[in-house]
Amino acid sequence: MIEMVVxxxxxxxxxxxxxxxxxxxxxxFVPIWIGLSEAVSIQSEIDQRASQxxxxxxxxxxxxxxxxxxxxxxxxxxxxxxIYYASLHLQIGPNAANIQELDARPxxxxxxxxxxxxxxxxSESVSLKxxxxxxxxxxxxxxxxxxxxxxxxxxxxxxxxxxxxxxxRLLEGVDLGGEQGKN
Length: 183
Description:
Elements: E1 2-11, E2 17-23, E3 28-33, H1 36-46, H2 56-66, E4 69-80, E5 83-92, E6 99-104, H3 106-116, E7 119-122, H4 124-130, E8 132-136, E9 142-144, H5 150-154, H6 161-172
């Protein structure tokens, strides 16, 4: 598992909201397309904006607190047929051995993780299938990473101009300013 943080919320070129996760070194980004209400919920928590009434993720987190349930971490475990699968890892009560794993949508899991200040992890297989490997080319510029070996080059993993453009457009739609990368 690779620990990730929320880099930002964005809108892709087709106006679909997404959450962009990144690893600590900023070498792997994982875009996860989400619903509008989940995007608002995640962004509200990133911005530390409280609503007048609890939103769904605030309510669930309050229930966890009131019933002695602790969210330990969330994991994005699988990516199949363009669908991401995630799990909540919950400690029930004071017994550290009483851990339950529950299936969740990644958007809900991430929204809850931000509220619980717990880790967000992505499996290596998801990172390989859906992640975008990038390299820093200076001046705060990232681009898809070129292959490291002749074998990778033979497999055709050199980023094409289209891939570079696609990645650039994706990042342009993500608000990377402010405190977002620190969550």
